[in-house]
Amino acid sequence: MSYVMETDEGDAVQVATNRGWRDFREWVETLESGANPDLAALTAEGHCDHLQGLAKQLCAALKTSPPQVEGVDVVANGILEFLGKHAGARTLTIE
């Protein structure tokens, strides 16, 4: 099984395998949630409607707290790439 990310524009792609998403969520849990509310919401709720904030928080987290588990950076960069291609989107859902 895998996780798929989709914008309100209707475009969807695979973001991670079950293990990849679990590892990504565990990395996000190590970050300060107060400084990363959009990132924390995405992993906890599977939904975010503050995409500019999400992208900024994800970029900052990758620089200040690089993931130690292999593949987490691939998931993070995949999300960033997807957001970059959908700059007009208002929401991101991961299921």
Question: Which descriptors apply to this entry?
Answer:
single chain, 95 residues, alpha+beta, four-stranded antiparallel sheet, 4 helices
Short description:
This protein is an alpha+beta fold. The protein has helices at residues 18-30, 37-45, 51-64, 72-85; strands spanning 2-7, 12-17, 47-48, 92-94.
Describe the model.
With 95 residues, this protein is α+β, with helices and mostly antiparallel strands. It has one domain (2-94). Helix content is 53%, strand content 18%. The protein has four helices and four strands, in the order ββααβααβ. Helix 1 (18-30) packs across helix 4 (72-85) and helix 3 packs antiparallel against helix 4 (72-85). The radius of gyration is 12 Å and the shape is globular.
